[in-house]
Amino acid sequence: MAPDVRERIDRVVLEQRQQDRLRAHGFEPMRRLLLTGPPGTGKTMPARALAGELRLLLFTVRLDGLITKLMGETAAKLRLIFDSVAETRGVYLFDEVDALAGERALGDDVGEIRRVLNSFLQFLEQHESQSLLIAASNHPQLLDRALFRRFDLVVEYPLPTPDVVRTVISNRLASMVPPRWPWKTIEQAANGLSQAEITVACEFAAKAPGHQRAPHTTPPPACSSSRPDAAISTAVY
Ligand SMILES: Nc1ncnc2c1ncn2[C@@H]1O[C@H](COP(=O)(O)OP(=O)(O)OP(=O)(O)O)[C@@H](O)[C@H]1O
Ligand SMILES: [Mg+2]
User: Fold this and answer.
1) Does ligand 1 come within 6 angstroms of the Cβ of 138?
2) Based on CB atoms within 10 Å of each CB, which residue in 33, 96, 124, 164 is the most buried?
3) Where are the bilayer-spanning segments (predicted)?
4) Do 120 and 47 share a structural domain?
C-alpha cells in the first residue's frame, strides 16, 4: 500500500476507535469512504484490513447485482441493507458503485437507476450509525458529482509506479528475489500492469519449472524459463 494511502487508512482507524471521544467534543468520525482506481489496484484490500483492525465483520454488497428491472425492488433491497448498517456495526463495502452512474444506464433502466441512486445518496447522507461504509469504483469518471460530495474521504488507487512494482514483487516473492536482479527491465515490463496482475505473474514465475509446475498448465513460451525474473519481465496478462 502506498505510504500516503496507508496514512489515510490509519487515520480512519484512529477516528473510528476514538469515535465516542470525538462525538463528545462535537466532531464526527470519518465513516463514508470512496475508493477509486483501475481493476486490481488494491481497493478491496483496505476494506478487509480496516475490518480486521477494527475487529468488525466485513459485508460486501455488489451494487450491479442488486439492480433489478422491477420498479421499486432495488430501492427496497437497498433499504434492507441500510437497516442492517444501522443495526449491526460492521464495515460495509459497496462494490461497483458506478453501476448507479446515470451515464451508464441506457434505455428503460434510466428512471429506475436514477431513483436507486437518489435513495443511495439519501441513505449515505442519513448514515449516522457506528458502521463504516466503503464504496469502490473502477470507473470514477462515470460517477455522478453528487456521489463524491457524500463521502468523507476519497482515496485514489493508481496503477503502480516503478517503486511500487518493486515493492509488490519483493513482498510476494520475499526470499526468492535474488540479490542481483535486472530491476529496470522488470519495472519496464510491468509498466501498465496492475498490482494484482504483477502478483499473478510473480506466482506463475515462482511455480515455474524447477519448482512445482501444475500438471494442466502450459506456460506461454515467454514464461518457460525457470528464472522468475524472465517470467515476470515477459508475462503480460
Ligand atoms: N498494493 C498491493 N500490494 C500487493 N498486492 C496487491 C496490491 N494491490 C493488489 N494486490 C493483489 O491484487 C489482488 C487484487 O486486489 P484487489 O482485489 O484489492 O483489487 P481491486 O482494486 O479491488 O480490484 P477490482 O477493481 O477488480 O475489484 C490482491 O488480492 C493482491 O493479491
Ligand atoms: Mg475489488
Assistant:
1) yes
2) 33
3) none
4) yes
In whole angstroms, give the CA distance from residue 71 to residue 232.
49
Q: State the residue range of the domain holding 187.
A: 162-234
Mean of the per-residue pLDDT values of the chain: 81
50 and 127, same domain (yes or no)? yes
User: According to the model, what pLDDT value does residue 219 have?
Assistant: 42
61/84 Cα distance (integer angstroms): 12
Q: What is the CATH number of the domain that holds 59?
A: 3.40.50.300
Q: How many domains in the chain?
A: 2
29 vs 12: CA distance, rounded Å: 8
| Amino acid residing at 223 | C
Last residue of a domain, one of 112, 127, 156: 156
Residue 74: phi and psi, rounded to 5, are -65, -45
More confident site: 107 or 22: 22
Strand partners, 33: 134, 153
The helices-and-strands tally (H runs, E runs) of the chain is 11, 5
Q: Is residue 30 located within the same domain as residue 111?
A: yes
218/4 Cα distance (integer angstroms): 40
pTM for the complete prediction?
Answer: 0.79
CA angle 94, 95, 96 (to 5 degrees): 125
If asked whether residues 119 and 21 sit together in one domain, one would say: yes
Mutate to test the pocket of ligand 1, among 157, 199, 204 (most ligand atoms within 8 A of CB): 199
Q: In what order do the strands lie in the sheet with 32-36?
A: 57-62, 90-95, 132-137, 32-36, 153-156
